[in-house]
Amino acid sequence: VQLVESGGGSVQAGGSLRLSCAASGFFSFDAYSIGWFRQAPRKEREGVAYFRYTDGQIFYGDSVQGRFTFSSDVSKNMVYLQMDDLKPEDTAVYYCGTVTGFVATLSLDQLGNRYHMDYWGRGTEVTVDS
Q: Around 65, how many Cα atoms within 13 Å sit in the side-chain half-sphere?
């Protein structure tokens, strides 16, 4: 499985960005959970939005609830993250991660703070200026 993120950039606070993640290889929405995670300098990786394939539920991190929206295009093996009302604290490298097996049945909270994904993209950088 390969994951390639795109869509990062610099925006002013209050602005919007849409990130994309292209999944290829053996990835399937029928067997893999997939989500967006971010890591700011000197901070731990944080779960942002996460799709659990077993029931189609989407989980959001508390800090982005109501501002970010996860979506997907099954026909293209793409997932997206629409980010609105961006804040300087959203500045981070955003990663797409996917997992199968038992871990894929967990919720975002149950993943804990280590987020053991099977595959990661290289990330796309988002900078929000105040």
A: 7
